[in-house]
Amino acid sequence: MPRSPRNRPALTHPEPDEFDVLDILHALSDPTRMTIVQTLRAAPERACGTFAVDVAPSTLTHHFRVLREAGVIRQREDGNRRWTALRDEDLEARFPGLMDAIVTAYENGLA
Amino acid sequence: MPRSPRNRPALTHPEPDEFDVLDILHALSDPTRMTIVQTLRAAPERACGTFAVDVAPSTLTHHFRVLREAGVIRQREDGNRRWTALRDEDLEARFPGLMDAIVTAYENGLA
DNA sequence: CCTCTCATTCGACATTCATCGTACAAGAGT
DNA sequence: ACTCTTGTACGATGAATGTCGAATGAGAGG
């Protein structure tokens, strides 16, 4: 057998209809989470452990949940790993230009 | 004499150079504050008491401070009143398109 | 079977936050 | 003067948040 998902509580992903701008803004207002998002813009999909953020694993899990429940990222089980990707299309369809403006502004402010 | 400002701690307004995107996102991630911003988009300047938000006056003061310290609004003393306005130009100069994208997305999500 | 890796859940902790009531300060208007 | 209006400051309070360590569960690979 190729791969079977883990027997863990299913990952909850809101539908685009359920996205709330305020939740998204809140999710992105944290430096660690913004770093995660920025990293994901450069790579289509990453495993949890491959992010250059300086927090404990359990803290990282917490941040992923906040991003996931806001609709910013999608997570997929694959054996022992959990792959994370931006929900680019869903976000763009629901709130055109929003993510671009925010991430651009963030990178602009790093100077 | 026309008008003299109150004898109160001066209003602190950050310079555009000091704006922090994460602070702005955090400031806008609250429904009351977003309502304030949205209201200010329609009117150039308003007195504090003229906002249709359902919170106590002291709470309103708190929200104004958060917005002000993030650089979103500017407040001006005038006799007994405090006038509030969006810092449109400063925000646009520092983070082009950011406020537009966010407020548009917010209004889009009210449907 | 045993161990290692990956990421989670749980519980705890300190901090921040939104909210309010009360008291206060000062201008406006009578 | 006196009172009303405007908005703040302070202190308290309950909720949410970011952080971690320890324990857990499950796949991967020897």
TrEMBL record, chains A, B:
<feature type="domain" description="HTH arsR-type">
    <location>
        <begin position="13"/>
        <end position="106"/>
    </location>
</feature>
<dbReference type="GO" id="GO:0003700">
    <property type="term" value="F:DNA-binding transcription factor activity"/>
</dbReference>
<keyword id="KW-0238">DNA-binding</keyword>
<protein>
    <submittedName>
        <fullName>Putative HTH-type transcriptional regulator YczG</fullName>
    </submittedName>
</protein>
<dbReference type="InterPro" id="IPR036388">
    <property type="entry name" value="WH-like_DNA-bd_sf"/>
</dbReference>
<dbReference type="InterPro" id="IPR051081">
    <property type="entry name" value="HTH_MetalResp_TranReg"/>
</dbReference>
<dbReference type="InterPro" id="IPR036390">
    <property type="entry name" value="WH_DNA-bd_sf"/>
</dbReference>
<dbReference type="InterPro" id="IPR001845">
    <property type="entry name" value="HTH_ArsR_DNA-bd_dom"/>
</dbReference>
<keyword id="KW-0805">Transcription regulation</keyword>
<dbReference type="Pfam" id="PF12840">
    <property type="entry name" value="HTH_20"/>
</dbReference>
<dbReference type="InterPro" id="IPR011991">
    <property type="entry name" value="ArsR-like_HTH"/>
</dbReference>
<keyword id="KW-0804">Transcription</keyword>
<dbReference type="GO" id="GO:0003677">
    <property type="term" value="F:DNA binding"/>
</dbReference>
